[in-house]
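[Automated response] Your request has been received and processed.

Submitted sequence:
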Amino acid sequence: MKAPKAVKSLIIIIGIPALLFILGFFLSSVQFYRQEISFLSLTKNHSTNDITSSPAGNLLAGNKISGKFVAYDDYLGIVSVRFDTFYRINDDWLVFRIKQLGDSKWYYENYYKVDQFQSHELFPFGFPIIKNSAGKTYVFEIESTTGTSDDSVALDKTYPVFISIYKYPRKVVFSGFGPLQKFLPEKLASFRNENIGRTIQANKTIRFIFKKFFNIVINTQIPVLGFFYFLPLIIYLFWLVIYRRPKTKKSYMLAILFLLTFIEIIIIAESIDFIVLEIFLMWIWAVWYYKLKNLDIFVLAFILLGLCPLFLLMNLNDISEKIGAWSFLFFVIAIFQLAIEQKFHHGRRVSILSVLRKIPKDFHDR
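Generated structure:
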């Protein structure tokens, strides 16, 4: 009897957490790959504050989008701008040009056909890398040549409205670094003149790696998405800690669920099925665990439904779509809950507000 029990404990304590960790790591890696983040590139997000002028609607022939920004780092090589194609293939040609503020001539100018643009996606305008760009101010223009009301694109003002990308040459980051087994002894002996150059280059590499790490944290959504991908592991570990106390029913878990739903709707730019599914399943668990009233779920669904046109009026279409989707999911939960309660009596139900009111007491009782 002891052997099966030991195997069961091993699976619960090591096996399941390991599988959940592998799942989180795999999904995070896929997301990193999907965002096409080159290791040797740094990015800087820009808002509409860096757009100096743009037409109110479609980019018609002769209309221009103008922007101005201070370069975040050296080796500026790409400006990616977000466009709205209205979900159609357009035939316009745009002229992209860029220069340093104050220069009389444009540094680079080229034509781009808009049939390759994807709606609400960033399109990269590349140009010869500017080596010493850090701290300098650059201006760019995007001009339509043949755009009409039925055949044109528009600037999508969803944040980030454009991204500046800094493409470090491989030789700048890695040249002279050498194999690690050769570098470490030389690092220890770096006081000798012949090793100073190699040590300086290694320090540049280390600084770039740290800079890259903070750049990913600040300018991408990978940390937020990674949290959601590892959320099943976090929840499971939390369960392992408290599962010996089954009567513990902390009200703040419901508040955390509201916060996660808010993050998915407002902060995460795109709707990711895995994240929506895990939060949806957590809501199903919360309805059962806290014995929430069916009426409260219906009210929550109607509130979200009423918020949809408000966000549409503010031109926040993506958020409005997400709110509409969550309204539908809450309606699904409420209808299934109503059907189950009609067939099976599950006793007294409590309101969402009554659960949330217990949060201060739960923290006080810890």
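Summary generated for your ticket: Confidence is low (pLDDT under 50) at residues 177-201. Strands lie at 41-46, 51-53, 64-70, 76-84, 93-100, 108-113, 121-130, 137-144, 154-155, 162-167.
If you did not submit this request, please reply to this message.
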